[in-house]
Structures are given as C-alpha cells and as structure tokens.
Amino acid sequence: MSTFAKGLEGVIAAETNMSWIDGVNGVLEYVGINIDALAQNSTFEETVYLLWNKKLPTRSELDAFTKELRDHYSIPSEIKDRIKAIPATAEPMHVLRSLISELAFYDSNPNDNDVESARKKSINILGQAPALVAAYDRARRGLDVVEPDTELSFSQNFLYMLNGEKPTDTMARAFDICMITHADHGLNNSTFASRVVISTLSDVYSALTAAVGSLRGPLHGGANEGVMKMLNEIDSIDAVEDYVMTKLKNKDRIMGFGHRVYKAKDPRANELQKLAEQLAKDTGNEALFEKSHRIEEIMAREVGAKGIYPNVDFYSATTYHCIGLKLDLFTPMFAMSRLGGWSGHVIEQLGDNRLFRPKAEFVGEHNVPYVPIDER
Ligand code: ACO
After folding, report:
1. Cβ of residue 295 lying under 6 Å from some atom of ligand 1
2. 309 in helix, strand or coil?
3. Ligand 1, residues 178, 216, 253, 337: which to mutate, most atoms within 8 A of Cβ?
4. Which domain covers residue 142, as residue numbers?
5. Quick one: 72 and 123 in the same domain?
6. 187 near 14, Cβ under 8 Å?
7. pLDDT 10s digits, 123-165
8. DSSP 33
9. CA 251, CA 276: separation in Å to the nearest integer?
10. What confidence tens digit (pLDDT) does each residue in 75-103 have?
C-alpha cells in the first residue's frame, strides 16, 4: 500500500540520533541536549563532535578533533588559482557548491565510503569551506587571499580570512553561536538531499555538493538573504505595518516566517533574536532590529493562529549584517555550519544504508498514439 504525501510532508524517511525537534512546543535538541544550552555554552567544534560522535567530547578528544580540523584549514594552491579566475559577478553559493565538488580532485581516494573514510572526508570539506568562501570574497573585491591561521577557532579563522584582521571576541562568539544554531535540523530538504545522494553509494563530495544546491533555495536557507532584502525595502519602523499587510493581502510570503515542522517560534530564532538585539545595539543598527521586532508582532497578530512564527532565518539576517557580512554571504554562512550536520547524516546513512527510491504517482495519459513529426 503506497500513500501519496506531497512534499513528503509527514513521511518518516530515515532514522537519526543527531537532532530532535518538537515543532508544537518549539524545542530543538542535538543528541538530547537543548539548543539553548549549546548556544550558551558550547563551541562549533564541540557541537560538530557531538553530532558526529553522539556524545560530548572530553578535553583531550576535543583537542584532537580541533587539531584535525585545523590541519585542514588550507585549500590547494590550484583551487586558489581557480578562485581568482571566477567572475566577480558569481554568486557565492554557486561558487561554494562548485568548489566543494572540486575538492574531490585533490583527494586520492574520493570514492571511499566506509564510515571512517567518510568522517575524514567530512573533516577535509568542513575544514576548507571557510577558506573557499573567504578567498572568493576577497578575490572578487580585488584583495589578496589571506592564509588561514591554525591558532584560531573555526569562527575566528573565517572572520580573519574574510577581513584580514582578527575579529573581536564578541564578534567571533556571536558568529560561533550562529554556527552552532545552524548545524543540524532533522531531515530538512538539504540534509535529505545529502542522504539521497550518498544512499546510491556515490561519494561524500557529491552528497555535500547536492546539499549546498538545495540550501540556496529561497524556501530553505536562501530565506536569510530574503529577510535582509525585505528589511532594506522597509524605509522606517512606521512603514512596517503597511508593508506586511500589503504582502499578506497579496498572498506573498514574508521571508523568515513559517516552517514545515514548527508551528511555534523556532527555538533557534529565540537565541538569534537575543544575539541580534545585542549586536544591533553595539553596532548602531537598532533600527534594523526594531523593524524586525515590529514585523514579528504584526505577523503574530495576523497569522500566529496559523502557526506561522519566525524561523531560524529571521533574526540571523540582522545578526549577520551586524557582524559585517555582505548580503550574499548569508546563505554560505548557513552552508558552512550545516556542513557539520550534512556530514553527520552522510556518516549515519553509510552506517545503515538503504537506497532511497520513492515512487511517483503517474497522472498522465496512456495509449497515446505516436504522431509522426510532419503530421503534428
Ligand atoms: N508568510 C506568509 N504566509 C505564509 C508563510 C509566510 N512566510 N509561510 C506559510 N504561509 C502560509 C501559506 O500562505 C499557507 O496559507 P494558506 O493555507 O492560507 O494557503 C500556509 O501558511 C501553509 O503554507 P505552506 O507553504 O503549505 O507550508 P509549508 O510547510 O509547505 O512551507 C515554508 C514551509 C516553505 C518554510 C513556508 O513557511 C515559507 O515559504 N516561508 C518563507 C520562506 C522561509 O522563511 N523559508 C525558511 C524556512 S527555515 C529553513 O529552511 C532553514
């Protein structure tokens, strides 16, 4: 007996022990630990270790994992040269997707799919992703590429390679919280894409490339850029009411709201809201935060009853803007973090693989006669 579920809504298609979501009450846990506790106390490196190993590391385990990741911060010189040749008009998400794929050229055994090889390839990709994004951003601005600094954490090192100077502790910590909160989220579209690809026993590079392609869509990770565009379109706090009401009247989507799983406020949005508010104050972007908050109030009044509340993308937009990131780097930031989650899912899938192969309901005609081309 097969049932049809458009968009696979409600279908359970995999088992995981990485993240758990209670969409009704707005709860997210990684390996049983509440996302608030991780956002407040953990680091991105520790969070990735947790997702991959299903336990928090001891000090020595974390040191070893961190060292292994830092040993992969550098990108091959051939890739650096290629980055310089990419048109400055290319979208960073297209660049990241293409370059993750190209990393396979520099792996002597790109197709090894045993669980330990998949873990090593995941470290290789996760370690290099920040350098790919930062190098492209600098190259398109006509600046020299900044070499990674293996004394720095994942987040510090990314901001250092992007800006050419070490970030303040506050900025690095804010960015790290963004990385922690975006790292994993059940069987979302991009994670599903990565599991679908690896289920053919293709390779980790192909699986993660597919996931980046999925994430860039405006209904998924691309929404954070949509939120920022919307905030820029609204001139002042007084213009928010009209803007939102017109959009709702026209049945347009308000970016950063709604979720297939959450019917309450996304708990990641709570953490990012706190961060956005503080950073907006620190960087003179109060107006941006106030506009966001006003949009949230109007949406709660108008569509809260339908379970449409802010999702992870809503306050991450203000947060990234205050950190000084350009608009088209917002979604690559999401991808850099989610590489941790995608990799964990790929490793899980390889550990207990079954090919994904759903069916489609055929809704076309049968017994259609073939008409020769000159008679059509
Ligand atoms: N603004 C206004 N109305 C909305 C929104 C929104 N952002 N989201 C859903 N709705 C309404 C729909 O119009 C629909 O109303 P109707 O029943 O009166 O026709 C109802 O809510 C259900 O919408 P669906 O599209 O069926 O819900 P679905 O679960 O498929 O969509 C999605 C989830 C795609 C995230 C949707 O809420 C959306 O488009 N949001 C805006 C884009 C966005 O923020 N995406 C990021 C999601 S989080 C992430 O992927 C990282």
Report:
1. no
2. coil
3. 253
4. 59-220+340-351
5. yes
6. yes
7. 999 999 999 999 999 999 999 999 999 999 999 999 999 999 9
8. E
9. 28
10. 999 999 999 999 999 999 999 999 999 99
CA-nearest residue for atom 31, ligand 1, is 260
For residue range 283-337, list pLDDT tens digits in order. Answer: 999 999 999 999 999 999 999 999 999 999 999 999 999 999 999 999 999 999 9
Cβ of 255 less than 6 Å from ligand 1: yes
pTM: 0.95
Q: Please tell me if the CB atom of residue 312 comes closer than 6 angstroms to any atom of ligand 1.
A: yes
Q: Is the pLDDT of residue 2 over 90?
A: no
Which residues fall within 8 angstroms of residue 101, CB to CB, at 6 or more apart?
Answer: 205, 206, 209
Comparing CA positions, the residue from 29, 19, 18, 28 lying closest to residue 53 is 18
Enumerate the active-site residues.
Answer: 259, 313
248 alpha carbon – ligand 1 mean position (Å): 12
* Residues 199 and 227 reside in one and the same domain: no
